[in-house]
Each structure stands twice: as C-alpha cells, then as structure tokens.
Design brief:
With 183 residues, the chain is of the alpha/beta class. The protein folds into 2 domains: 2-122 and 160-177, Rossmann fold, CATH 3.40.50.360; 124-157, no CATH class. Helix content is 42%, strand content 22%. The protein is built from 6 helices and 8 strands, in the order βαβββαβααββαβα. The chain has helices at residues 14-28, 65-78, 91-94, 96-110, 131-141, 161-177; strands at residues 2-9, 31-37, 51-59, 62-63, 83-88, 116-120, 123-124, 156-157. The strands form 2 sheets. Strands 1, 2, 3, 4, 5 and 6 form a 6-stranded mixed beta sheet that branches. A two-stranded antiparallel sheet has the order 7-8. Helix 1 crosses helix 6. The radius of gyration is 17 Å and the shape is globular. The two termini are 20 Å apart.
Length: 183
C-alpha cells in the first residue's frame, strides 16, 4: 500500500476538514493517508512517502508560517515525489485572480512547484468570531457575495466538496501511477 503525507495548516479549521475528505478518498484508492497538522508537528520528513499533499488557508493575505517553513525545509524531498497543494480562502468566491496570486507568491517564497494545485472556497464562521471581528468582516464585505457582507449573524461554507473529491481522485491516480519515488 502506498503512503501519502497529508500536511495542513489549519488556522480556522477548514483546511483540516478538507484534508479529512481527501484522506477518505485516498483510502478508497488503497493509499494510506498520514495526517500532519503543521501547527503541532514540524519535523516530519516527506522523503519516505510515495506522495505528499499540503493544504493551507489564507489569512490576512498570507499562508500560515508553519506551512511555509515546512515547505522550505523539505522542498528537495517534495520535488522527488508526486505532490499537490490546496489553498483555502473565501477570496476564491470573490476574486479567483487574487486567490491564484496567493498561490503564485507562495510558490515564489518557498521554491516549491507542486504537481497539482487547487483553490477551494473556505468558510466564514461568523458565529465563532468576537464582536470586533464580526464588525470588521461586515465592513470589509459590504457589496460582496453573501457571507462577505452585512449579514454576520450566521456562518457560510464556500467549499465545493465535489471539487475536493475530484482533486483527491486525480492526485490518487498520480500517486498510484508513479513509482515509489521520482529521481
């Protein structure tokens, strides 16, 4: 059975939820998905794995520093195995070009060019925010899509779960078609 490292930085939790769905799909293709929350574990080496997928959420126009540090530390190993990256952000719903720009800056900053990249809508869990953050979100989102505007009384989830499953299926095919490691 092939093994894939499934690393994520989960500041708000949506990247972890997406990783859980990816893990289910990979297991259905006889791939052991090994989860790694980069907020708590930083030193797992991807070299012994048959593939790696990394997920990160955009907050304040940046990815979590733990994700960036992990990629920088392991870029050589990542470039030897099939890899994928998924970016999570509500900005995908508002401005896909902005979301792609985050990924491009991330690739430049880390030197990693994953084989596959996906942009997934995140979640705005307004009911979990404090008063100040809800107020700021209301002001920021006026005139935007629902959930990014004045109604901060409820939560919004923008993740397209079918797209997540398709991305995981495609990555599973990459891993299963590859040898154990690339040269």
């Amino acid at each position: 059975m092939k093994r894939v490292l499934l690393a994520y930085g989960a500041a708000g939790g949506q990247a972890a939820k997406i990783s859980a769905v990816v893990s289910e799909v990979l297991r259905s293709h006889d791939i052991d998905a090994v989860p790694l929350d980069l907020k708590t574990v930083h030193d797992e080496d991807p070299a012994p794995y048959d593939g790696a997928m990394v997920g990160a959420a955009v907050h304040l126009d940046r990815y979590d520093e733990h994700v960036v540090e992990f990629i920088r530390a392991h870029v050589v190993a990542l470039n030897r195995i099939p890899t994928a990256f998924f970016s999570v952000s509500p900005a995908v719903e508002v401005d896909a070009a902005e979301a792609r720009g985050h990924v491009e800056r991330f690739e430049q900053e880390t030197g990693w060019r994953p084989d596959r990249v996906a942009l997934f809508g995140g979640a705005l869990l307004h009911t979990h925010f404090g008063f100040v953050r809800r107020h700021l979100m209301k002001k920021w989102g006026e005139g935007q899509k629902p959930g990014l505007g004045p109604d901060v009384s409820r939560d919004y989830v923008y993740t397209e779960w079918d797209a997540v499953r398709r991305f995981a299926e495609d990555f599973a095919a990459d891993v299963n078609a590859s040898g154990t490691h690339r040269a």
